[in-house]
């Protein structure tokens, strides 16, 4: 590994300027020096922003898993690749070496091939945070099957929608999962989902909880006996640079989730490069990211980024509050974690508890601590800095998205002076810009605008599975010639970026991206509901929570409110998942609408926030009187 690492702040600017003057040369060198290729590329980058068409390293041939595992075997065969820390602290942690990981992934890859999975086939993975999840993901990538990991908190209908959208041939799940003191019946959810998924031929089931589950003859098989029969050697598929690597669904502003497609070589180069630089990873470090592999953070910074660097990465099955609020800190102490990467919502929930939970444990191993997923508020930033980082481990506040594949804006530890709530500066090679309402680029500092990226980078998503038009419209049409992030940001007097939040109909709840449209669709399916509008409002722990304004078909049904509230939330749980439940529900007789029938969410947002001061121009409303009613009924 020889990525150039910037040594000080002055050098960052020099390096950055060079990277954007000659981006092709910049990425060419990184790709050339740090990976094993079967064949080199003809061109570093070809692109057309209008058509949203991007090709990185075309002509190259590579396998990302060979780069994650095989090439480390000679030097790091006995090094721990994965530390598995189980939900229950009394269960022993597992240390999986690179050699063992090679064997497990090879066996799994052979099983997949034997079961008829070929390059280009889609495989849905619905597993808890156990080593098998990593093994299955890597096995898919090794044989060129496209993995679609669905977070194991999604409901049966959400799983089904994702399976149907990309036509998965196989589902890999487990007999259940542990989460704190609960067990989750994953196989039951898959069975329910598969009632509507005709493309799925086979289901492989890993054992975790030993729950008594039903196996469907001819479709379902236990994984372990198949693995026991498989050989521990596997010839990896030779992939083209732009061959699909995975699909990962993210919420959009319509009901249908977007299957973001990432491809092979660019994603590999970008996640490896960003991991090394942002976490200042060194050979004997132990890195821990607390995300779930079901989200992009887990894909890029639990699996691919760390393994590409030959790192030791922790996979944690549990939750921060089980068996007590000291669990994170206990695990850091136990495994001598050097880099710790988590979400503001987790920090806020732990900061509410006594800080003695932290101080009981020895955190001196930590060097760098990170934050991701949503803006980190000032109070949480300071708590993290004081109690966890002890004011010596820099906080990397990393801004990025499922669509960007890897981190885009972040301090470089020991290089960029941090500033609370600021993601600070773009990484070398990344060109953020702020745009005004007239679609002009805003120059200078101390400005606010919509955040766009004006030049391609290797980790970017290439399309939305099956809907390139939607990809173009969502990301490349609002500001022609630029990638639109959907986020607003400000640039301070020295050029540091602070992300202020979404400017579209996506609300980030506990770090999870939730589109309001699919939640409204789910609520509207309840037999008593006529119409609904969901907005976010600030919440101490979750960052944002959801507030629902609901019109019932029958005004009289208000009397049963208690039951209805529960039912509506159950409805959301079963359509999307418990993460999308509403914190507050207000029954209303109408919603503020423009003459063209569009709900004025701006007004609803203000009411939900409890800010009744200035609703702006309401003269275009069809029914201005409704605002007063809603205001008076605020819950
Ligand atoms: C938000 C997660 C502020 C942002 C990696 C973005 C952040 C969305 C930060 C993407 C941060 C992520 N500061 N906001 N450091 N990181 N976000 O696709 O609104 O789950 O657009 O990817 O999270 O969420 P996603």
What is the fourth-level CATH superfamily of the largest domain?
A: ANL, N-terminal domain
Query: How far apart lie the N and C ends?
Result: 56 Å
**CATH fold category name of the largest domain:** Rossmann fold
Radius of gyration: 24 Å
Residue share in β-strands: 15-25%
What is the domain tally? 2
Bound molecules: 5'-O-[(S)-ethoxy(hydroxy)phosphoryl]adenosine
Shape: globular
Biggest sheet details: 8 strands, mixed
Kindly report the average pLDDT value.
94
**Any guess at the CATH architecture of the largest domain?**
3-Layer(aba) Sandwich
CATH class of the largest domain: Alpha Beta
Low-confidence stretches: none
Kindly report the spatial arrangement of strands forming the biggest sheet. Answer: 12-11-8-6-7-14-15-23
Helix share bin? 25-40%
Number of strands: 30
Q: Which structural class should the secondary elements be placed in?
A: alpha/beta
| Count of DSSP-assigned helices | 20
Description:
The chain is an alpha/beta fold. The protein has two domains: 9-432 and 472-477, Rossmann fold (3-Layer(aba) Sandwich); 503-632, GMP Synthetase, Chain A, domain 3 (2-Layer Sandwich), CATH 3.30.300. 31% of the residues lie in helices and 24% in strands. The chain is globular, with a radius of gyration of 24 Å. The mean pLDDT is 94. It binds 5'-O-[(S)-ethoxy(hydroxy)phosphoryl]adenosine.
